[in-house]
Amino acid sequence: MPYIGTSPSNGVRRVFDYTATAGQTSFSGSDNNSQTLTYTDSAYIDVYQNGILLVPSDYTATTGTTVVLDTGATVNDSVQMVVYDVFSVADTVSKSAGGTFDGDITSGGTLNIAGTTTAPSSPSAGDLWFNSATSTVSDVNSKALAVYNGNSWDQMSNIFSATGGTISTYSSGGVNYNVHTFTSSGVFKPTAAATVNYLVVAGGGSGGSNIAGGGGAGGLRAGTLAVLAQSYAITVGAGGAAGQVDSGGAQSGNNGTDSTFSSITSIGGGAGGPEFSGNANNGGSGGGGSRNGGNAGSGTSGQGNDGGNGTTSGGTDNQGSGGGGGGAGAVGVAATNSAPGNGGAGLANSITGSSVTYAGGGGGGGYNTSNSSGGSGGGGNGSGGGSAATVGAANTGSGGGAGGYSGNRPGKSGGSGIVIISYAV
User: Fold this and answer.
1) What is the end-to-end Cα distance of the chain in Å, rounded?
2) Residue in 197, 214, 217 with CA at minimum distance from that of residue 328
3) How far apart are CA 123 and CA 401, in angstroms?
4) What is the pLDDT of residues 86-116, one digit of tens each?
5) pTM of the predicted model over 0.70
6) How many CB atoms lie within 10 A of CB 230?
7) Cβ atoms within 10 Å of 276's Cβ, excluding its own
């Protein structure tokens, strides 16, 4: 077995000093410095007498605790044994070249990890990397430890949190989540870089007045977004205000306003078409067309759907009906000869931990018919002439119901939007 000739800090070389008596041959036990002689291998012991190195044939060293001289020493001779401990240096990891530990590693003291400013170019799942830079790199904060999940680096230190909105929590699959809900405009401010989930719903459009089209739902966008440790302005769009009815007939309703979070913008819902002027507005989802052949508005791709067209033929007293406003999940229903169109369905989303449906379209208005229904997700009901239309539900981004005939001509306002952000903690 090899040994290291230059002693490291913990020592592999031990010296034992003895002063001989007249004719003494055997040396063992405590030496002049109260050290007890021991050695592991006789091949790794040097014996000196009065400073002269003896050859192995001049002594016997086989017991591990005693050295016997072949010739007795003279009184006061200095006899010294230099012992080298034996150890193996196999299966080691190089300090300069590095290497891989295949087994578990346990540290009894402080484990210091140095790193680089650039993440490894070809990492494997489970690899660790410490970002030593003074800025965020690969979405990992400065002086933070990260683990590779097989697709990206997950920060392990400087745990992510944020402020803003109304904060709630839920747990799913053993993972806890924070949820920030904004029902009005505000600021979302993370403490570190991370990827968050978002739902951004714009305000819904209002229904048209006087046998009109239902309001289109506000645009709905959902997904994930990388954020940094900075402030993000949140805008929650208002629902479109209801159009008024005057002696000259109907006035147009109003589109909902946009909702925004960072680079994510959802478009406000289109207003339903009013009587006579007919055509509805485009938006996140399009408004429904009114009677007199009004055309529906168009929705925005990836955010909502088109409204339904109105009709002039059929229906009670042959007065026509308005189409339903588009919803995030379905187009508005076109009016028929006997009934106004229902609003398009909204979309369900579970960002809060529970499934909630948002952004339903408003129902169309008719002439002495049954009321139409708003789309699931808060869409307002349209008036059929017998009862008034209803507003889009607040903070759902739903469209308002359209007005009908007689004393129930006014359309109703759209529902306000909402912005929700969640992340694992």
Assistant:
1) 53
2) 217
3) 55
4) 555 667 777 777 777 777 777 777 766 666 6
5) no
6) 10
7) 15
